[in-house]
Amino acid sequence: MKFRIDLAPLAAAVADAARALPSRPPVAALSAVKLEATGSQLTVAAFDYEVSAKATTDADVTDGGTVLVPGRLLVDITRTLKGKHPIDIELDGSSLVSITSGNIRYTLHTLPQEEYPALPQPGDASGTVTGNDLNQAVAQVAAAAGRDDTLPILTGVQLTVTDGKLTLAATDRYRFAVRTISWKPTSDTTSGQALVPAKALLDASKMFADAEQADLALPASQGVLGMSGPSRSTTMRALDGQLPDYKKLWPTEFAGTAIVDRDELIAAVKRVAVVAERNTPVRLHFSPGVLSLTAGSSDDAQARDRIDAHFDTVTGAPLTIGFNPGFLLDGLDALGTHSIQFGIVGPGKPAVLNGLDKDGNDLGDDALTYLIMPIRLPS
Question: In the predicted model, what is the mean pLDDT of residues 142-155?
Answer without folding.
Answer: 93
